[in-house]
Amino acid sequence: xxxxxxxxxxxxxxxxxxxGDPDAGNLPRIDAETGQGLITDVCLKRKIRNYVSxxxxxxxxxxxYIKEKAVLNQQNEKAYIAIGxxxxxxxxxxxxxxxxxxxxxxxxxxCQNFYDIRxxxxxxxxxxxxxxxxxxxxLTFARSVDSVDTQEFAITRCxxxxxxxxxxxxxxxxxxxxxxxxxxxxxxGHGFVSAFLAEQTGFSDDDLSLLWxxxxxxxxxDRSAARGEMCTRGLYVFKHxxxxxxxxxxxxxxxxxxxxLCEGPARNFSDYKIMIxxxxxxxxxSLIKVVS
Length: 292
Prior knowledge:
Shape: flat
Number of helices: 9
Helix content: 25-40%
Number of domains: 2
Strand content: 25-35%
Order of helices and strands: EEEEHHHHHEEEEEHEHHEHEEE
Distance between the termini: 25 Å
Largest sheet: 8 strands, antiparallel
């Protein structure tokens, strides 16, 4: 990959909880000072991993390292077995350091076979040591344009879990729970793709195309009642003509403006207008509108 990329991601959610905070009873994450909603980079990476896992069926070279119920040391052991050094797993013990050559070979194998490692990087030096990888793709938190109104509702279920609960309720058999969401929020996140780190991990142009595809469609196969209507509303990619880059990322991000059109609280994407100062894009940088 010969180019640096910086991108702006627009996500909106209607009547849903885009990223619950387990430390706050799973309420939507917010900035306590401004009231703006937040979606963590970890949450966005999870959506990308899930999409790639679905479309590539977890087969190399698109297997996923961080996935549900995975045991990471077992994932790391696959590398030593594949490079023909499985004896080091039993001879030295799982917590011992391998030779530098073995670790480098194992790290290379992991990058070649796991999409999320060569994309986001990974720390694989605990237990079975496959080293560490700094990924070329980095994401920020996504932050809502305006403050969001977090709401919590009581919900009932006309069934109970155990016979003891049924006896206690004398046959009424109802369970009360809580559900939280926001009526509407438009979120903006930023991302960066380093050409130099891509060379180190083997992140290719095909991997990059898959990343754009995942960012565009990651919510389409991830529907749930908790997330309401959630989708990607915009993906604006700034492509540099060089590996190092031709302009600071923050200057490029400032070229995209979001204007609120309604006076009251926004409730739809049409309540906003997206404007781009395309005439101010610096030389050596081009704008690719993947979704707009």
